[in-house]
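Narrative of activities, Objective 1.

The group set out to show that a structural description can be obtained from nothing but a protein's sequence at a throughput compatible with the screening campaign. Below is one input-output pair from the validation batch, recorded exactly as produced.
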Amino acid sequence: MRQLYVLRSLYVVSVLWSIACQSVYAETVGIEISALSDMEHPATSVAEWLSQSPEADSPVPVQIVNVQINPTETGLAIVLSTAEGQLPLVSTSVVGKALIADIPNAVLTLPNTNEFQATSPTEEIALVTVSNLPNNTVRVAITGVDTIPTAEVNREVTGLVFNISVEERAIATELTEYDTIEIVVTAQRTEEDLQDVPISITALTEEQLEDANIINLEEISQNTPNFAVFSASGNRFFNFYSIRGLPNVNFASRDTVGFFVDGVPYDYGGFITQDFIDLERVEILRGPQSTLYGRSAQAGAVNIITRKPTNEFEFDSTVGYGTYNDLDLRASVSGPIIEDRLFYRLSGSYGSRDGYVDNIFLDEDLDDQSGGNGRGQLLWTPSEDWEILLNASFDDYRDGGGPLLPIDDEPFEIEQDVKGFTDFISNAQSLRIAYQNPDFRATSITSRRFSRQDIETDLDFSTFRTGRFTNVFDSTVITQELRLQSPEDAERFQWLIGGYYESRAFNTEDDGFNFGPDAPLLFGAFAVPGASLLRSADLDTTVWAGFGQISYQPAEDITLTAGLRYESVNNTLDSFERVLTLPDGSRTTFTEFSDIEQDGDILLPRFAVEYRFNPELMIYGTISRGYRPGGINFRPDNDVSLTFEPERSWNYEIGLKSFWLEDRLSVNAAFFHNPIEDYQVLILDPFTAVPLEITNADAALTGFELELRATPLNGLNIIAGLGYVDARFTNYRDRATGEVFDGNQLPFAPEWTYNLAMQYRAPVGLFARVELTGYGATFFDDSNIFNQDAFAIVNARLGYEFENYALYLFGNNIFDREYLTNASGVSGAQSGQYGVPATYGIQFRAEF
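Output recorded for this entry:
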């Protein structure tokens, strides 16, 4: 143990030392200044011009009265006309792909607006803006598409002329620029800068996902405040998660969180806990989402966007190996089939590892894992206005059993007579057709997804031969979403309308107990050895919805938004039975239902207002209604527990989004209050901890999120997040015991969540990253008996990056923090599931 501790300590020290010892490269980027004619005005440097300018000491602001853009052979010319031919000063800098020219002691006074903007004036230049900043400063920003523009400033009798050109040089090799914090998201169904979206949202770019080696849902949550995923170390498909304190319930009812992969909704978040491949971006939206998406979501939405087929050949692969014989293989390839028209992309992954839990009774690992997934895409662009994307994917995982472990000093040891297994397969197909013209955009997304899960576990998680718990279920979901929306260049008035259809067939069989020789000792005489007590159910759900949203700018700095959704849900329990089958084949039916229906509909409005003080500071407020449909329990024992009511809420939120220090620091915050009526409470089986049914209560949630991103030095990035939620029952009496749980904390809703990452990428190729993720006290049951105290884990990565290759060492939970992800009283004993212990490994990447 002492050697292991010393190794961990040396590993952490080496990572921190590499960050502290890197050189910091920064220099000022200037603009070459020359006259309209070198014969009339010899070229001077910026410093010489600033020192010679007669306007430098003038207290009267220079008035820029007109802005004009003219194409040139090398790029374009930006003409700034000043009142009475005044010649203002210029200071310059570079931020990302943008060349910034600030003109102090100046003011932009155009006839009808205080800001000038030109989008894509040339193929190499994406945007030109001229705007007023505080303290009488005018900023000219020229953003390149792939590289940084350069400029030559000419003095004319009427003002200044910026001659802009784009040189052939790679952004990645520029060591003198500061990194930007600009992140493009599609949370509102159109491409926008993250800082312009009036929603509490965390976005992880492709580079951030790769740097942090994020490949699953739990790792996404570790970088997102107020998003908690409780994954058991031995079972990736039995997980609880919550956004803003609202947890998921079970796989037979709609999740509080909406999960979307390339716009296609997943019917149950547990199906998305497998490893991800080939990601472009992940967006986590907090708060009700109902007026922009086909499927509505009560707590928030997780948008997973994969990389698309490309018109140029691409190949990348990753090979990783770590403790517990953890093998991780992933690769993707993309390129054109018909140049400029038809493209393909193929991606796949395979992973396996030994178990973390040692079954000392059977002398074997209990929770080993293996499996993989794959995806193929075809992208057809018959013209500039059309885009057709066909997507097909599959998952195939063969894992060991998901153990409930005794809560003691040896959390990764167990004695039980059944190893168990968890098998999961799925396949999905989707077709996305998009069309655009100057007046509108249209999108159609058609999808089908089939999932099947087969589970077997020890019935009592001990060496008593009581038998096995089994469950097999199938889920087939077909969806269709249609959207019409304003064109991409719409500014003052934006609109969206859509329709959605969903059909789900959920079937379960072999759901229950298969009794062994010792079963009568636990269950009584009816549990005859060799007999089985199993449930089967067929449950169908149909959803119809229409939704829309409009945004209007009555003034340049104010945007008003209103949206509305109508949704109708029909649930039908075609059949249900609970049958005892004896060894001789005789059957006794204890419970039976058929043709049970539940219908419901609702209107879900959303209102928002945002005010922008300047391009770097915006505040917003929203009021929105959230909703989770009611349903039919697929494991009912009687008429009383057959159905449950829909969950309804109002979400009140105010937020702030801001840039500071020349866009090198972003600070975002959101505060919310969310009273919930008929909150859906999950009831667990006291013997197996398996979800049994859902009942209703009232609850309330209040909290905030704070996020910070900074690039204080070239190559150094700091990302921090803090979330707080007070999530409590306000009206809940346990139906079985009569206990009142008013004031208790909701289960799986940690009061605090926080994350901090420091990362440095040196010009010479060295890479280092350290992450801290923490959670406040978390309860796992309604009575608040079982809980996990506050804890934190630390991850680290150290590597060296070449042009096309990279090699990394990594450690996760490097201090081997033991923590519970679930706990309950199973068969009268305290049992739980633990998080992943300390793991270490090496990873190799190649990209072409």
